[in-house]
């Protein structure tokens, strides 16, 4: 890695490379990046995307150093010995070389950290698997773990990595996080080797945050190339963007008639994460299965009590944590009042089982009290 730059790769697959980069001596000027395979430039981008986590951690003064580049011509024959080269497009200096192995990057640093962690206390030796339910403060938890354990020991968003790479993640990382349902985690990881955690959120607030994100995804998709956006996700986002949120009856009609992909994207999102398989719509039977699966979790935190969960997790793992602001909050205008009875009635079909799940977790010992 060039000593004039700081860089980290978050995602690398056949379609996308993302992360952050800046010049050590000129942090305010975004770096123009050329991603090269051999002597061929396969993607270009500029590291200027706002990263709230990097600003909150003090890594970068403004946080405007993130990047993502979509790759159209990556040679699918890349193997463990192949390399991609990142260069500064302005100075043509080489910034870093990376191998095409998902997130198994910057091996020298990560291998050293892995060797260090082997000699830490018993609680730290136990690896952590985090089931990241979107819009529940999971981004904050990932960021806090990266700050305390070291970036080389943490990997997040493993849903963007080929499942064939998961065994390598289990070997190299101390904290593994991703948007995967429990069934997928059980399929690809030996849960006896991990302490499994997750965080859930008050269902009405959670659904509102998710709907705002989906609406924003559509608006962002219109600004970017449509072929870079997941078609199903873009279509569902389009539906949300076209809804009249000033009319509770229109929202109720949407809640009671969705099916197919839209049902999987909006119906009882938190409950379905605790299931062993994907379902179109969550049922009472699915709720019972989700509750039975509580026993796989070492603890389940609540977004509304995030600081408590974080500190008790830190005490159990014997790592120091500090109170931080919750990251990845939406700055978009609220779509409706979550506390309005008319909207709660209209949206009830989409969170009826999440409400019961949430209450059971609050009342059970799988909550943060179990960490004491």
Overall body shape: globular
CATH class of the largest domain: Alpha Beta
Number of helices in the DSSP assignment: 14
What is the number of domains? 2
What is the CATH topology descriptor of the largest domain?
Rossmann fold
Radius of gyration: 21 Å
The average pLDDT value, as a whole number, equals 82
Strand order of the largest sheet: 10-11-9-12-13
Query: Which second-level CATH architecture of the largest domain applies?
Result: 3-Layer(aba) Sandwich
Low-confidence stretches: 76-80, 100-125
The helix content is 25-40%
User: What's the total count of β strands?
Assistant: 13
The chain-level structural class is: alpha/beta
Percent in strands:
15-25%
The first-to-last residue Cα distance is 42 Å
Element-level helix/strand string: EEEEEHEEEHHEHEHEHEHHHHHHEHH
Biggest sheet overview = 5 strands, parallel
SSE arrangement:
Elements: E1 5-12, E2 16-23, E3 31-37, E4 40-47, E5 49-50, H1 52-56, E6 64-70, E7 84-88, E8 94-98, H2 107-117, H3 122-125, E9 127-131, H4 138-149, E10 154-155, H5 166-172, E11 175-178, H6 182-188, E12 194-200, H7 203-223, H8 231-242, H9 248-257, H10 260-266, H11 269-273, H12 284-292, E13 299-302, H13 306-317, H14 341-363
Parallel strand pairs: 9-11, 9-12, 10-11, 12-13
Antiparallel strand pairs: 1-2, 2-6, 3-4, 3-7, 5-6, 7-8
Helix pairs in contact: 7-8, 9-14, 12-14
């Amino acid at each position: 890695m060039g000593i004039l730059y700081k860089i980290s790769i978050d995602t690398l697959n056949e379609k996308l490379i993302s992360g952050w980069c800046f010049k050590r001596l000129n942090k305010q000027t975004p770096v123009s990046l050329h991603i090269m395979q051999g002597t061929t430039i396969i993607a270009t981008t500029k590291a200027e995307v706002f990263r709230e986590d990097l600003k909150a951690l003090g890594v970068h003064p403004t946080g405007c150093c993130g990047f993502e580049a979509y790759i159209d011509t990556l040679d699918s024959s890349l193997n463990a010995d192949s390399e991609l080269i990142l260069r500064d497009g302005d100075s043509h200096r080489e910034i870093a070389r990376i191998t095409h192995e998902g997130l198994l990057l910057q091996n020298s640093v990560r291998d050293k950290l892995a060797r260090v962690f082997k000699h830490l206390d018993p609680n730290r030796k136990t690896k952590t698997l985090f089931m990241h339910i979107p819009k529940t403060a999971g981004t904050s938890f990932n960021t806090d773990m990266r700050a305390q354990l070291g970036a080389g020991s943490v990997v997040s968003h493993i849903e963007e990595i080929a499942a064939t790479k998961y065994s390598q993640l289990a070997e190299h990382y101390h904290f593994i996080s991703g948007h995967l349902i429990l069934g997928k985690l059980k399929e690809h990881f030996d849960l006896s080797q991990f302490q499994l955690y997750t965080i859930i959120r008050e269902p009405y607030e959670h659904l509102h945050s998710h709907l705002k994100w989906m609406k924003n995804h559509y608006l962002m998709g219109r600004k970017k190339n449509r072929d870079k956006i997941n078609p199903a996700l873009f279509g569902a986002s389009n539906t949300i963007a076209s809804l009249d949120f000033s009319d509770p009856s229109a929202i109720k009609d949407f809640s009671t008639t969705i099916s197919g992909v839209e049902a999987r994207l909006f119906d009882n999102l938190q409950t379905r994460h605790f299931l062993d398989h994907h379902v179109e719509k969550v049922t009472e039977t699915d709720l019972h299965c989700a509750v039975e699966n509580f026993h796989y979790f070492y603890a389940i935190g609540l977004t509304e009590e995030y600081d408590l969960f974080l500190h008790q997790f830190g005490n159990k793992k014997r790592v120091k944590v500090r109170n931080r602001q919750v990251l990845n909050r939406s700055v978009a205008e609220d779509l409706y009042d979550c506390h309005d009875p008319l909207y709660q009635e209209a949206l009830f079909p989409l969170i009826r089982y999440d409400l019961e799940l949430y209450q059971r977790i609050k009342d059970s010992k799988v909550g943060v009290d179990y960490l004491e």
